[in-house]
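Notebook entry, structure prediction.
Reason for the run: the old model in the group folder had no record of what sequence produced it. Starting over properly, with the input documented here first.
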Amino acid sequence: MYCRKSIVLFFMAALLYSNYCAQQLNRLEAGEELEYEVSYSFIKLGVIKIKITEEKGSGDNRVIRTTADIYSYPAIPFVNLNEKMESIYNLKGYSEYFRALHLGYEPQRYSEYIVNKKNNSLRVKKGIISPYKIKVDSIANINSHIQDGLSLLYHARRKVGLEIIDTIKCFIVENLSTAVINFNTGKHPVTIDNCDYKIDCIRLSGNANFVGLYGLTGEFEGWFTNDGFAVPVTAKLKVLIGSISVELKKWRKKNWQPPRFTEK
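New structure, fully documented this time:
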């Protein structure tokens, strides 16, 4: 009898795990486009557009290519933020490649990180876009998986809902650092302007132990859809000017609408 129960429990656990893994993989699919507006109090600062442009491989050996366009509105004084990013994220849980174009100010610059898992190295290149000039080209040894400033978001999406607190190693603005994230602090209804019902979300919270784009650092919160896709809906972040909010405005994702929150 004990043996039968053990076999049943084993197969139940295997089924639950396989369903969980399939759900995580379904969260990140090529063709997804999400657009957000960034606000400081009642002031609209700018826009973030993120896309999954390509996916290769199958099962847990997939990699996705992602992009981000971040820009401030022209009417905002003293700020001319114009950033273009590209990242290749391996679904085994790490960044393989990152490139950022810093286009807001002259001279326009670029940063590039290339991970070589065979020899556990990270190549860092920095320079000027036009006329093209390499100013930094160095190689560092790394002994663990790392996330870049864009892959960190997709890595978090894969883990949202898990009842864990994780310390994630990052390489942000040419510095090795960490982000500590609690991936499940409960289920919450979330309201946004472009959806006429409350959205079913899971909240995560964390601390960025680095200084990123526009001074991003410290404590942060994010609300992700409580479904098989973990789409970021809203976030609160700390930057140079203080606390800002990020809100989903437009989405293009096959067969997807924000899940409706229901009281149980």
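Summary: The helical segments are 2-26, 151-159.
The old model has been moved to the deprecated folder.
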